[in-house]
Amino acid sequence: MRIGVIGLGNMGAGMAANLIKAGHDVTVYNRSRAKVDELAAVGARPADSVSDACRGEVVLTMLANDDAVTAVTFGDGGIIGSAGQDTVHISSSTISIGLSKHLAEAHAAAGHKFVSAPVFGRPEAAAAAALFVVTAGASDTVAAMTPVFDAIGQRTFVVSEDPSAANLVKLSGNFLIGSVIESLGEAMALVDRGGVDKHQYLDILTSTLFSAPVYKTYGGLIASEQFEPAGFAAPLGHKDIGLVLAAAEELRVPLPIASLLRDRFLRLLASGGDHLDWSAVGSLAARDAAASDHSA
Amino acid sequence: MRIGVIGLGNMGAGMAANLIKAGHDVTVYNRSRAKVDELAAVGARPADSVSDACRGEVVLTMLANDDAVTAVTFGDGGIIGSAGQDTVHISSSTISIGLSKHLAEAHAAAGHKFVSAPVFGRPEAAAAAALFVVTAGASDTVAAMTPVFDAIGQRTFVVSEDPSAANLVKLSGNFLIGSVIESLGEAMALVDRGGVDKHQYLDILTSTLFSAPVYKTYGGLIASEQFEPAGFAAPLGHKDIGLVLAAAEELRVPLPIASLLRDRFLRLLASGGDHLDWSAVGSLAARDAAASDHSA
Amino acid sequence: MRIGVIGLGNMGAGMAANLIKAGHDVTVYNRSRAKVDELAAVGARPADSVSDACRGEVVLTMLANDDAVTAVTFGDGGIIGSAGQDTVHISSSTISIGLSKHLAEAHAAAGHKFVSAPVFGRPEAAAAAALFVVTAGASDTVAAMTPVFDAIGQRTFVVSEDPSAANLVKLSGNFLIGSVIESLGEAMALVDRGGVDKHQYLDILTSTLFSAPVYKTYGGLIASEQFEPAGFAAPLGHKDIGLVLAAAEELRVPLPIASLLRDRFLRLLASGGDHLDWSAVGSLAARDAAASDHSA
Amino acid sequence: MRIGVIGLGNMGAGMAANLIKAGHDVTVYNRSRAKVDELAAVGARPADSVSDACRGEVVLTMLANDDAVTAVTFGDGGIIGSAGQDTVHISSSTISIGLSKHLAEAHAAAGHKFVSAPVFGRPEAAAAAALFVVTAGASDTVAAMTPVFDAIGQRTFVVSEDPSAANLVKLSGNFLIGSVIESLGEAMALVDRGGVDKHQYLDILTSTLFSAPVYKTYGGLIASEQFEPAGFAAPLGHKDIGLVLAAAEELRVPLPIASLLRDRFLRLLASGGDHLDWSAVGSLAARDAAASDHSA
């Protein structure tokens, strides 16, 4: 397929490379040119503008946030104005369900097709074509995009005909990670005050009931209090929890842990935590606890 | 070793059987006689009273709660008055850190030794000698008990010289499970309102970042809203969260998610949930949310 | 002064009438004409459009929410395009601090002056010229508006040179009322379960430390469980708590009780409470509690 | 009446003095002798022991907490063993509903009568016979105690035949004060960051909807950040919130604001706040917020 990829950050670059490897004809665009050249070196066609990346049957966007997706889609020379009839826009960014619905409507009005396909996985998984793809949209369009999903991921989940449902799943996943961070932060503050070594404690947890990668990764960061450099920065976590709460607002679902997380992120940012990894939220419980005896 | 085992519930019976298999000389006591006879049939010496089970070098208790352990230890004919000098009391029950400290002091005063050794694992793991043992106490005593731990579990973690630290680890583990239940309950209420199938959602979660058994087990119960029969009843969950908060009170550690869980359990019990599995706490978020469109 | 008043609801109508009584030359506009005619009967000049109400030195808006103020100010024929140089726009509506800042900038760019002047008090106080006016803006402009404030209120508080500070005070006041509702709801649920009559309990409270009107008014509604007709409907309370949280977001202030209130309102609305008074939030604690013994 | 008064702290001393002024024959006991002598100088009979204070028809206790009341009642030479048949024990201390029930049972078994009569009001009100008395117990006994209540307070509320109901009302009152402290702390943190002066803000609040003394008193302390010397120390506030939650546990009433307050007090104490007034809980929201622009 002829595919345009817009957004060549850590995630998008890996996805584009894998689309090339799978034999697709891939055009790439990025705001800063260096990334474009890197991909061109492995077989991509470089694009000088968003509109240049909209000439194929598919345009896939992998960008940082709502603002970036909005600019690329609705701005001058954006996808809405540049893409041909029946072009499929696959949006893989973590965006609000509000924007997802707006994209679906605008593309329908412009004669395009729209599919949401956010992914679970870190940059290494993107590079290894091992992402998990959660997708939603009109079933025939989604089915037609199978070769794209197969090229970038290890497994694809089709969750709904409504594209925004896939975004909701992605956001809720980040909420669950946030919940793990906060609960581990509380548990570690508690056992630390009781004289238990935090690393050994984490070893017990991850050897038993909590063997999931998310416990190992974030538990290790919290136990070591090592929040720099940020793998996923606190303002991004804050933003995603805000998007979860916005979705909950629209769907009228009270989410007490999400509300707690919002306050935790505000506090972290208010105390200068903008540059820290979002797992630093897991250090706040310890900050509020009595100094541990054994550290005296 | 000559070992008395007191408490032959689903957990204790399996542990006693494995001690016998490992070649120990095991005497068993239980409030109701039937369990004693079952174990006698596989090689245990039956005891008619707590004191009869206190004749060996070790007495291991595996009971339901603080009250049961208190009665067996401090009551008439209890362990304190019946055990000989240097007898080791291994307490595997999930009890408060307050009682654990009290046991340590009382046994020291009586010339006994005391080790806490709560376990992670369900009855099947107890039967298969596959428990995870978390233990704490004087290091030489703990070291001397290695044959006991090896007989009942697959791995032993020694966490502190202070026996109550092991109880704290156990309680904090139940707190983390409670956090998983609540967070899954919130996430599922949200995506369900957004039109996503809850079972498919759980499949996505457990295929990706949340592969731990605890997500599979409790997520499945919440998705199916199947809270009977109770594997671990709501009042027990409520009690354990209460013990976590009591420990947090003593150690002065604010735990907002634990506070939330306490209120959730109170609500569940207030609405008649005594007979439900504790994962029913994960149904409360959905109860508060707007009826989902797709269920209309 | 020549003053245009836009928005003749329960509050605005009383304010306009008092401006007339105080001798000002008042032009009135309202979306539905009936209110205009009522005011015309007591001396107001009727206006057929927003722009007709923008011919004086002052235009005062008293509208339901951000959308209404936005439409009246920035819409076709709105205040921005219609008002003359140096016209003062007094905004008395309960609006977001974001909109307040936007209004200040837009009016400055258009050569107008802008003052925020939200009020505390119910329709009866508006009718009696007994409102409390909280105002903020450039000090000379605020000072020049003294005759307006004196005509509608019993006391004026000048809080800042930044107009949005007055909106923040107003919003925070509604947050505090919400806190009273929730805390009274919890306390009444508790004593009710303990066998104490809720009305007598409220009498004790308001005879002693809690003599403020807000306890009497809302406590009475909660004790009687009388939430219809709505004096201030739940969706408006929900909206205001949302505006408080939006301000807290911008200023980076974690507000745990506000977060709780947000979830309470979502739950109330999700269970069909749109038509109820916002004090119905105070009935949720009782809903979660065990049925009281004495009501059995 | 012949009345023994046990506990001559700031509250009890004033109550005893007023009983003397009202013409009663008052015997006083206190752990430290100085207070006894002060009261003796104004007409009290000094007692050397608790039992000496139990010779009359009534013994009134006004002590710091459950432990003190337990010691005085059940200890060697305590009220249970010393008081004659039909003696009335009036307990005015702020105690748990659990202890209140225990006292009622023990006194009934010993042939005594028991009435709870906690009071609202500070030491100045106790000195001025201006307390509010909340009482519960068998109606004839309560009625017979009217002269006592009239001597110490300005108004008496009879709430139940169950003595513990009066304790519940008292505890819930302290919970409501705690709610005011927390909500004011949040609101002031918010408006302060928005550039509003906290004292002026409080003036606005207390001039309008929040005219109750509790807002003036605690709001002033929070605005001034003046938490020493402690009028009511943080550990006492913490203890009372604990008693509220214990009551809520027994009655199965989830109380989210009380749970929040418990965590707030733990945090305050963990950071060295034992010597501060309990209103220092109202400073925590500001601690978590971004530094305000205007303080830079």
TrEMBL record, chains A, B, C, D:
Stored PROSITE patterns: 3_HYDROXYISOBUT_DH
Keywords of the record: NAD, Oxidoreductase
A Pfam family assignment: NAD_binding_11
Annotated InterPro entries: 3-OH-isobutyrate_DH-rel_CS (IPR002204), 6-PGluconate_DH-like_C_sf (IPR008927), 6PGD_dom2 (IPR013328), 6PGDH_NADP-bd (IPR006115), HIBADH-like_NADP-bd (IPR029154), HIBADH-related (IPR015815), HIBADH-related_NP60_sf (IPR051265), NAD(P)-bd_dom_sf (IPR036291)
GO molecular function annotation: NAD binding; NADP binding; oxidoreductase activity
Source taxon at top rank: Bacteria
GO biological process terms held by the UniProt record: organic acid catabolic process
Active site: K170
UniProt similarity note: Belongs to the HIBADH-related family.
PANTHER family, sorted: CYTOKINE-LIKE NUCLEAR FACTOR N-PAC, OXIDOREDUCTASE GLYR1-RELATED
Protein's name in the database: 6-phosphogluconate dehydrogenase
Organism: Mycolicibacterium aromaticivorans JS19b1 = JCM 16368
